[in-house]
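The record is kept unedited without comment:

——
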Amino acid sequence: MDSYLKWQLETELMDMLPAYGGTALLVSHDRGEVYRLADKIAVINRGQMETPADKKELFRHPRTLSATLLTGCKNISVAKREDKSHIYAEDWGLSLKTSAEPPLGTRYAGIRAHFLEPRDRAEGENVFPMEVVRVIEDTFSFIVMVRPPGKAAAPIRWELEKKAWHDLSGRELFLYFPPEAIMLLED
């Protein structure tokens, strides 16, 4: 089904569901569609349903690797707790300060591509110099794949508006990983 027709059907559902008054089950692989239509979301992981969660809470704090992937996070690294406020993201080669105490069982860390922030210099915690690996033009944004310079680290996806990327052109790149945006995952 083309995107226009799909959107028409979705808006009809948006009008119908509140009037229904009962419980409706929506099964979808489209995270945006689920977010727009559902109040609570349950992720199916290896044939088992995870505990249903409020949609905003699930997207803010997915808790599991499968929920993080299904909510669209592209930046996930194997991670381990370093201390009460830091984790080491092995795939990226970065020690990151977190806003919450990392659980002892932390196995992965994630950060959404649009939460990374450019900085003028490597000043303060969670600000790192980055080299650009690849720039991909999308419809209304750029996807910039970066990694710490001189490391054979997995690329980190950073997504930003076209104008913002053009404004950074030719400058040395430093990225800030906000501690409150780092998702800590135990499985």
Q: What stands out?
A: The longest strand covers residues 127-137. The chain has five helices and 14 strands.
